[in-house]
Amino acid sequence: MMSISIIKKLSLSLILLTICLGIAAQELLHMHLDYNRFLSEEKDTALLLDYQIPYRSLIFVAKNNAYFAEVDVEVQISNRDSVVYTQSVTDNIGISSKHDALSTQKAYLNRMSFLLEPQSYNLSFKAVDVNSKKSFTFNYDIDALNRDARISDVELNSRVYADSSQYLQKFRRNGKIFEPLPSIILQREYFENAHIYFELYTPEAELGMSQLLVLSLEQNAELVMDEYIDIVTLNSSEAVTLKIPLADLKAGIYEGSISLQAGESTIEKSFDFVISEEVEVMLSLFPNPEDEYGLMRYFMA
Question: Is the pTM of this model over 0.85?
C-alpha cells in the first residue's frame, strides 16, 4: 500500500499531469512543496518548508539583458482559531538565457523556516506568479515533534557538496550545501545518488552507547535494500547523512524508512522518492497557443 507521505507528495506532482491534460491549466501554477521537522536547541520544533518551482512553469519578462519572474508567496500557520505566523515574501527569479525557461531540469528553490511549540497546527501555503497570475495553494495539518523525540523527519536531498560561498545559505549545514528535493523526483541521467539527512536526539544518560540504525528501501512492496548501521552518539543532537546509489535501482517509486532501535523500542521515520529516466518529448510551455505567443512577446520585448 502506498504510504500517506508519498501520496501527499505525489499529489503535488500530479499537478503536472493536470496541466498536460489541459484541466484548469490556465489558472494553476505547477510547483512542488514539502516540509521537514527538527528539534531546536530549546527542544522546540524547527519547521523547514521547502518549495521548488520549475522555470518552465513561470513567465519571464525581458529586462536589462536578462529575464525575470516574480512569485508572491504567503504562508499562514494557525493553532485552532489563533494565527501563530503570517509570512509573505516576493521571490525575484532571474535567468540569463531564455532557453532556461523551457528547461525540464532547472528550477527555483527556496526555504522558509518557523519555530513551533509542541502542539498541532494547520499550515496554509499560497504562491502566485505575478506575470501570469497563475496560483498554487495547499494546506497541511502538522504536529510539532515531542520534546523527547529521538529522531527528526528524514529530508531527501538531490546533492550534498562542500561550499564556502554565500550562495544558498538557507541550505548550509557545517560547511556543506544540502539541496532538498520537494519534487522527490530523481532523474537518473543527472543524479548518481539520493542523499538523506536526519538528526538523532539522545538523552544524556545514553551518550556513548551504541545504537542500531536500519535503512530499508522497497519498490512495489519488495525489499531492495536493507542496511544495518551501528552508531555511537556523543552529543545530544547529531546529524546523520546517508547516500543511496541509484545505478542499480530500476525506475519507479521507492518507499524508504529509517528505523532507530533505542533500548527496547523501535522508532521509524519514512521517506519516498521516484527515479525517472529521460525520454524524448516535444516541449511546450503552454497547452494554449495564445499563451505560447505571450511568452514569445515577453522575450522579444
Answer: no
